[in-house]
Amino acid sequence: MDTIYALASARGKAGVAVVRVSGPKAHSALALMTAVPKTRQASLRKLYWQGAVLDEALVLVFEEGASFTGEPSVELQLHGGQAVVAAVLQALSGIDGLRLAEAGEFTRRALENGCLDLTQVEGLADLIDAETEAQRVQSLRVLSGAIGAKVEGWRRDLVRAAALLEATIDFADEDLSVDVMPEVRALLDGLLSQLDAELAGAKIAERIRDGFEIAIVGRPNAGKSTLLNALAGRNAAITSEIAGTTRDVIEVRMDVDGLAVTFLDTAGLRDTDDPVEVLGVELALQRANAADLRVFLLDGLSDTPAAVCRENDLIVLGKADRFSGDDLSRFAYHVSGLTGQGVQLLLGAVSSVLLSRTVGAGTLTRQRHQIAVRNSLNALRSAMNELERPLMGVEVVAEELRAASRALEVLLGRIDVETVLGEIFASFCIGK
After folding, report:
1. pLDDT tens, 91-116?
2. Helix and strand tally (H, E) in the chain?
3. What H or E segment, with its residue span, contains residue 222?
4. Were 22 and a residue from 69, 213, 231, 339 both cysteine, which residue would form a disulfide, CB within 3.0 to 4.6 Å?
5. Ranges assigned E (strand) in 288-373
6. Using an 8 Å Cβ cutoff, are 292 and 313 in contact?
7. Do 230 and 236 touch, CB atoms closer than 8 A?
């Protein structure tokens, strides 16, 4: 396998820049530049190339099996000037057997060498992309192997159930002293419950990763665009006294108490003969129905929420600066995008609703995870159905258990994953 190198830290001027080298020639390549220090001990070394000093760097050396990639590796912590980095990379390019790493190649080698499973690779990608505290915590949990640990537990139960069934096949002509079927059924019942529970929390886990959508809906001129601008702290939407100004959906992404949230400003809901506005209203209803939460902004004291309102949606009086205290007391929430009145209270309410939903979040953060677990679950259900038949086929049940186990192997990336690897690693930078 080639020895690869790359800048592992961000490009541009910085206090420290990190260059990573991994592969069978990593240590010998370092020996051409400086004295190789003891493994896993940071040592200050001057780096030389063709008789000239390139930099004075902190050098770390890792032996095979003790590095991120599982290969012999070297890490150079350089001064972060662009000229320093360029000089060191240029020197590495002149060493036989070394080449610049491709996007995600260090992590791919960690996968291929068994240092990470595929879910951990995805967790690492999500950790790098994390924008909020909830995303950081969730991705770090996946990176630590939470999914893999659960899968190993499920596979142990599958292997035990399969072994019991295989015994009935192998000793079909002999009388077994113990009826194994009650234990098989108990194992499969437990697995069905665990996988069902994991899938139930998958939608929320996916939402934490991708972000929640909050649709601001209401009649034209209820103050939706002004409220969006107040939430964003900038003029994200055009505001006007002319009804129907907003035709398209305007999005603003925010961090709300550690959760990634996208607020949607939608077209005012009303009957209209304007064909463009009709399209805007239809789009508004579509996005409102698909959103995780709706904020219904009422245009006046006699206004009522639209028909798409659901339980836990927030009913809010808009343009609160125009009303007296007695009128405002009739509403749990009232805001003025113009003055900022009630905006923080509304954000607190949004946060409370969303945080209450995250309590049931599972560890399956991607659709690929859900498909694999669902396939395993379907195979288990088929196995249970076969067990309940009067003329039960033990061989059929055993094959369904093997199918369930294969689906979990796909989840961890041990089989049948070549089609997804390119897409996953394309999201990584060169040095990762």
Report:
1. 999 999 999 999 889 999 999 999 99
2. 15, 12
3. none
4. 69
5. 293-298, 314-317, 333-334
6. no
7. no
> What type of residue sits at position 33?
M
Residue ranges and CATH numbers for the domains of the chain are 3-116 (3.30.1360.120), 123-201+365-413 (1.20.120.430), 214-358 (3.40.50.300)
Backbone angles phi, psi at 90, to 5 degrees: -65, -40
- pLDDT tier for residue 177 given thresholds of 50, 70 and 90: very low
- Specify which residues 17 forms β-bridges with: 78
- Residue 325's contacts (CB-CB under 8 Å, 6 or more residues apart) are none
Query: Band of the pLDDT at 242, cuts 50, 70, 90?
Result: very low
Q: Which residues contact 294 (CB under 8 A, 6 or more apart)?
A: 214, 215, 216, 217, 288, 308, 309, 310, 313, 314
For the ranges 30-39, 173-182, 287-296, the maximum mean pLDDT occurs at 30-39
Radius of gyration for the alpha carbons in the chain, expressed in angstroms and rounded: 29
| Residue 366 structure tokens | 């991607």
- Least reliable range by pLDDT among 88-92, 203-207, 232-236, 401-405: 232-236
Give the DSSP H/E element, type plus range, for residue 339: none
Above 90 in pLDDT, residue 240?
Answer: no
Give the type of residue at 399: E
Read off φ and ψ for residue 427, nearest 5 degrees. Answer: -85, -10
d(CA 127, CA 144): 11
State the Cα–Cα distance between residues 424 and 114, nearest whole angstrom.
17
Residue 347's pLDDT is 92
Confidence of residue 420 (pLDDT cuts 50, 70, 90): low
C-alpha–C-alpha distance, residues 171 and 185, integer Å: 20
Please spell the DSSP secondary structure of 343-392, one letter per residue.
Answer: HHHHHHHHHHHHHHHHTT--S--SHHHHHHHHHHHHHHHHHHHHHTSTT-
Element (H, E) at 271: none
Q: Residues 417, 118: contact at Cβ < 8 Å?
A: yes
